[in-house]
Amino acid sequence: MRKIRRPSGIESGDWLIAFDASLRSADLSPRTVTGYLQDLAAFVRWYRALRLPEPELSEISSMDLIAYRQHLIGLRRKPATVNRCIQALRRFCR
Q1: Residues 47, 61: contact at Cβ < 8 Å?
Q2: Torsion angle of C-alpha atoms 60, 23, 28, 35, degrees rounded to 10
Q3: With 70 as the cut, is the pLDDT of residue 54 above it?
Q4: pLDDT in the model for residue 5
Q5: Sequence-separated (6 or more) residues with CB below 8 Å from residue 88
Q6: What is the pLDDT of residues 15-53, one digit of tens each?
């Protein structure tokens, strides 16, 4: 199973700030940035509830992302909402 690599030079407390900065530097609309940050926060809440009190980015696997997608589908989210959440996580994992 593939592990998602944490960007070098980013400590666990700084990853959200770094992600926010990378979204803003990509010249995305403020609504998109806000949506992606909310999607990431929702993923972290879900991950904490199932795994660890504090998620270690190096421990998040592709299987976790698949499970989260299935969780969203189980909540009967619209396909566009699920796709946006997954896109936010893909962008974060890059």
Answers
A1: no
A2: 50
A3: no
A4: 44
A5: 35, 36, 39, 40
A6: 788 888 999 999 889 999 999 999 998 998 898 888 766
Q: What distances in angstroms separate CA 57 from CA 1, 13, 17, 79, one per listed residue?
A: 15, 11, 14, 26
Which own/partner pairs from 46-54 qualify as long-range (CB within 8 Å, at least 24 positions apart)? Answer: 46/71, 54/12
User: Of the candidates 64, 48, 55, which has an alpha carbon nearest to the alpha carbon of residue 2?
Assistant: 64
Residues contacting residue 85 through CB under 8 Å, at least 6 positions apart? 39, 42, 43, 68, 69, 72, 77
Residue 12 has pLDDT above 50, yes or no: no
- Residue in this structure with the two tokens 């530097």, named with its chain if needed: 25
pTM (two decimals): 0.76
Q: Are 58 and 5 in contact (CB under 8 A)?
A: yes
**Quick one: tokens of 49?**
């509830």
Residue 6 has pLDDT above 60, yes or no: no
